[in-house]
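Known limitations

Structure tokens in this collection are predictions and should be treated as such. Users comparing against experimental data should check residue numbering before alignment. To illustrate the layout, the record for 4-phosphopantoate--beta-alanine ligase is reproduced below. The input appears on top and the generated tokens appear beneath it.
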Amino acid sequence: MVEAEIPADHPRHDSLVTRHRVEAGVEKGITSRQGLIAQGRGEAFDYLLGERTIPSADAAARAAAAHLLLADHPVVSVNGNAAALVPAELVALADAVGADLEVNLFNRTEERMRAIAEHLRDHGATGVKGLAADARIPNLAHERAKVDADGIADADVVLVPLEDGDRAAALSDLGKVEIVIDLNPMSRSARVADVPVVDNILRAIPNITTHARELADADRPTLERIVGEFDPEATLAAAERAIRDG
Ligand code: ATP
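Generated tokens:
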């Protein structure tokens, strides 16, 4: 089955689309083979969540949008799975909130960095960061620590979809506001995030963009109130309840 043949009302629609895109990403040299394993883990949680955006994830997406709009320098970090799954949607979000896109890989190779940057440009991105790699995140092994000095290193708010726990923790130790998209509410990444969005990236990125567009004319006090009222622990607890109770 090709992606276009998956009926929109198929009960496992998002899983099937996600699988197809990650598989195509591996074939194109964008996604690592380990990305397939990460995908499998995510899919299991999405199944348990009923492949839907639960209300607490929608509230998190709204808080994420408010943080991105309040930021001086927001950066959206892009790895191989994110690039394969939602390239155009990442570009749309970056445009909506004035963020930079930075390619940032766990299994970094120059070839894959360039392939992802090109893939994003094919989907409308201008000025993709990540290739300069002229700064480091402290407390991480060499390859995994590489970032751009005028990108993630300089950001005050970073959105990191599907990040591994060590890097999520290292970024949050730098004092940046960290927004994580992760279907597993028990993952370390979700637990260190200021804003954990427990949702499939396929739904979460467009949803954050929709909230950002709705909030585009909101004044700072309104955005600050949304951010201030957000409770990450309660959000994770609500997601865990949804998974356990069905
Ligand atoms: P941690 O180090 O945070 O404990 P981990 O070792 O499980 O996490 P990985 O396997 O590298 O980390 O990361 C994959 C994470 O991304 C998993 O938590 C998985 O649930 C999540 N994930 C995978 N696919 C998606 C997706 N399409 N949307 C959202 N989250 C996803």
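For this record: The first helix runs from residue 13 to 28. DSSP finds twelve helices and seven strands in the chain. Please report discrepancies through the issue tracker.
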